[in-house]
Amino acid sequence: MPKILLVDDDIELTELLVDLLNMEGFDVEVAHNGEEALLKLDLSYDLVLLDVMMPVLNGIEALKQIRQKYTTPVLMLTARGDDIDRVLGLELGADDYLPKPFNDRELVARIKAILRRTNFKATPDIDINSADDRKQLEFGGVTLHPGRQQAIFEGRDLDLTGTEFALLQILIRNPGQILSRELLSMEILGKRLTPFDRAIDMHMSNLRKKLPLRNDDLPWFKTLRGRGYLLVTEK
C-alpha cells in the first residue's frame, strides 16, 4: 500500500483528503505545517502532498529542506493563478503541482501517475517494450538503474528526482528521436499539456543542471522549438 505524507494546515480539507485517499488504497499520514512534515518524513513514504501556504514553515521552504535529504516525489498544492509558487516549486525539485481548488479525481490521477514511474511503461508509438523497462541502461558515461531509480556517473549518484529520472530514462531509451512536450507530459506527469504549462520544460532545465559533461563532449539534449526534445547522438 503506497504511503503518503499529506501536509496542509486546513484541518477540514485534510480530513476529507484522508478519507478519499484511504478509499483509493493509500496509507496517509498528516502534518499541518512544514516543520512537522520534516520531523515525520523518512524513506518509508512514497509521496509527499505538500501545500504551499502554511504557518510555521511554508511549503516552499519545506521543499528546499526535503530536497537536501530526499528524492521522494512531491506534489505541490498551490493557489490558483499563483504562477510564481508553481515555477519556484518546480525549480526546487517538486515533481508536479495542482492548483486549489481541485477535483478529487484529478488529484488521485496525478498521485497515481507519479507513483507509476517506479514501474515505467511507455506508449505504443515509442520504441520501448515493457520487458526491458527495468534493465540497466548506459549512455554518455551515465548508468541508469531503473529498479532503484538511480543515475550514476563515475561512481557518483546524480540525485535525480523521480520525475528527472523518468525523463532521462525515456530520452535514453529513444536516442535521436524527437519526443514532443505533449507526449512527455502524458508519460512523465500523467496529464495533458495545457498552453501555459511549463512543467516539462522546468524538469528538463533541472536535469541539464544535474548531468555532468558527456564523455564524447556532445550536449545531452537538443530543444526543437514547437516540436519537443531529443537526446543527441551525433554532431
UniProtKB/TrEMBL annotation:
Keywords: Cytoplasm, DNA-binding, Phosphoprotein, Transcription, Transcription regulation, Two-component regulatory system. Residues 3-115 form the Response regulatory domain. One of its GO terms (biological process) is regulation of DNA-templated transcription. PROSITE patterns: OMPR_PHOB, RESPONSE_REGULATORY. Pfam families: Response_reg, Trans_reg_C. Gene3D superfamilies: 3.40.50.2300, 6.10.250.690, Winged helix-like DNA-binding domain superfamily/Winged helix DNA-binding domain. It is found in: Cytoplasm. Residues 134-233 form the OmpR/PhoB-type domain. The keyword Cytoplasm applies. GO terms for cellular component: cytosol; protein-DNA complex. The keyword Magnesium does not apply. Residues 134-233 bind DNA. SUPFAM superfamilies: C-terminal effector domain of the bipartite response regulators (SSF46894), CheY-like (SSF52172). SMART domains: REC, Trans_reg_C. GO terms for molecular function: phosphorelay response regulator activity; transcription cis-regulatory region binding. CDD domains: REC_OmpR_CpxR, trans_reg_C. The modification 4-aspartylphosphate is found at D51. NCBIfam families: PRK10955.1. This is Transcriptional regulatory protein CpxR. It comes from Conservatibacter flavescens.
